[in-house]
Task: structure prediction
Amino acid sequence: MSLGQLCLAAKQSASDNPTYNQAMNRPDADGFKDAMDAELGTLMDMKSWVINTRTKGMNVFGSTWAFKVKRFPNRTINKLKVCLCACRDQQIEGVDGFDTYTPVVNFSTVCLLLVMSIRLGWSLAQINYKAAFDDAAVEEEIYVEMPQ
Result:
């Protein structure tokens, strides 16, 4: 199988990004529940937050769970991933902070870099950084409500 075929084979289907209700009604829902517990455990271990009582004047963002089914190139399930995401689309730049986006890499960019590394003979290394965004420095106080 060529690299191009591998990149195409790794594309996700709509069922690989289920909503909360869809994830909880799948046959592998226990795997998603375990991933949710692991995500909360990671956030607690990193001391990402403290629990506060809501007061008047607090700008509180909602939050949601993002679910992802990661697959091997042959389409079998590799792992179930869950991420707790703050709904910062409600953020007002300059009031709730100054960075209103988080840069992420596009999958096609990764494929391009892999092809370039093969063609140019570059050596490759892999780093798996769990909770990379949670480790970023934040200067403002951000209040987030747990999802339903």
Notes: The CA atoms of residues 61 and 144 lie 5 Å apart.
